[in-house]
TrEMBL record:
Keyword Magnesium belongs to the record: no
Pfam families xrefs: MFS_1
Entry-linked Gene3D superfamilies: MFS general substrate transporter like domains
PANTHER family on file: MAJOR FACILITATOR SUPERFAMILY (MFS) PROFILE DOMAIN-CONTAINING PROTEIN, PTHR23542
Keywords: Membrane, Transmembrane, Transmembrane helix
Protein name (record): MFS transporter
Domain Major facilitator superfamily (MFS) profile positions: 1-389
UniProt lineage: Bacteria, Bacillati, Actinomycetota, Actinomycetes, Streptosporangiales
Cellular component per GO, a single term: plasma membrane
PROSITE patterns: MFS (PS50850)
Topology of this chain in the membrane: Multi-pass membrane protein
Originating organism: Spongiactinospora rosea
Length: 398
């Protein structure tokens, strides 16, 4: 495999530091949900419903705040948004261990609304520091970093709660988020390139109705379908292994699934041309649907996960690349925020849908139902995607 595309991307000044900060900064964020869940269950001695409600409230807040934060970044720059959200996270994580349940719910809602927009910011900055022809490889590297953070963060959250107690675990996760915000304040990566700033200076603001058209809406719907099927797959894997009395292999199976995604992202970043995010997502759904037919134990399931796993990171990377091509740089922060919101909506919808199918018909049917549903949504969206305009450019300066 030709590594030249990666060498060219990593040779761009600032890219290595940005990707490394992005990887490390996302780990405490990905640990948030699991750490809070374990705190409610073990520290507060409450039930799963109450623990799930805390996570759901934070998720809703994050979905609402992402495009709002992105719009502020487009208008005011990165540092004011990072400073405000970092202070908000410091206040929440310092007080969370001492709060009663109702106060924790209210604080969690505020924390979600003022969450650090790390995922969208890193992608926005990657698009700013790389020329257009190298962004696909940069986004592939970023998708692999996201995969690594999800492999480390939730497990680290569980380990901290069991090792040092939920109170200290919350404090350490909070410290990690504050450190992530501080690192971004010091680094202060550009959110637009110098050329993009020059082109947009003096130009009127691009109305939302111009760039948020059928193409972008279709892409955001596909992104939701992507995380819907990924989250449903994770839940179904847990249920299948539990039903087969192989729960002890859950970590290995999910870890291999993530590893396949890393391999797929690495291969995709080195390809000579981009692939359609709709085709990649549809393929992932098609390979996920028949997983319920796999018999013979967890080993065969690991092998059956390879095709779908290889498409995870490429589908995510291609969606970010396509979004940067179809939106002008002056609104890239808001566009990336909407992308994060779409990811969050897919994850939030998967839980109750997959859970209902698992409870009613078994985990095997959950693979089929969620994979087919997401694939149908993507196939319905394809004609709209092809007819939509390819890009919206910045208007000429007045």
């Amino acid at each position: 495999m030709d590594l030249t595309p990666y060498k060219r991307v990593l040779a761009v000044p600032g890219v290595r530091t940005l990707l490394l900060v992005g990887l490390l900064a996302r780990i405490p964020v990905t640990a948030t949900g699991m750490t809070l869940t374990m705190h409610v269950l073990h520290g507060m001695k409450l039930n799963f419903t109450q623990a799930g409600l805390v996570g759901a409230i934070i998720t809703v807040g994050m979905a609402i705040s992402a495009p709002v934060a992105g719009r502020f970044i487009d208008k005011k720059g990165l540092r004011p948004v990072i400073a405000i959200t970092t202070v908000a996270q410091l206040a929440f994580w310092l007080t969370a261990p001492t709060l009663p349940y109702l106060a924790l719910l209210v604080s969690a809602a505020l924390s979600g609304l003022l969450t650090l927009p790390l995922f969208s910011v890193i992608r926005q900055c990657v698009a700013a520091v790389l020329p257009a022809e190298r962004r696909r490889t940069g986004f592939a590297l970023d998708s692999m970093a996201v995969e690594l953070s999800y492999m480390i963060g939730p497990a680290a959250g569980v380990g901290l709660v069991l090792g040092v107690g939920s109170g200290w675990a919350l404090a350490l996760v909070g410290f990690g988020q504050v450190a992530a915000g501080a690192a971004l304040l010091v680094l202060n990566p550009p959110t637009r390139s110098a050329q993009e700033d020059a082109e947009s200076e003096g130009a009127p603001v691009v109305p939302r109705r111009r760039w948020l058209g059928m193409g972008v809406i279709t892409l955001l719907g596909t992104v939701s379908a992507l995380t819907f099927v990924l989250t449903a797959t994770e839940l179904s894997l847990v249920a299948v292994l539990k039903e087969g009395h192989a729960t002890e292999w859950t970590g290995l199976v999910i870890g291999l699934w993530c590893f396949y995604s890393l391999v797929g992202g690495f291969v995709y970043g080195g390809l000579p041309r981009a692939l359609s995010p709709l085709l990649l997502t549809a393929g992932l759904c098609a390979f996920t649907a028949p997983l319920g037919l796999v018999t013979g134990g967890w080993g065969w399931l690991c092998l059956a996960l390879i095709p779908a796993g290889l498409l995870c990171a490429p589908a995510l990377a291609s969606s970010v690349d396509a979004l940067t091509q179809r939106t002008p740089p002056s609104v890239r922060g808001e566009a990336m925020g909407l992308h994060s919101t779409a990811l969050t909506i897919g994850m939030a919808a998967a839980g109750p849908v997959a859970g209902a199918v698992i409870d009613g018909y078994g985990p095997g049917w959950a693979f089929l139902a969620t994979g087919v549903l997401a694939a149908v949504l993507v196939l319905v969206a394809m004609p709209f995607w092809r007819r939509a305009p390819q890009a919206v450019k910045e208007p000429a300066p007045a």
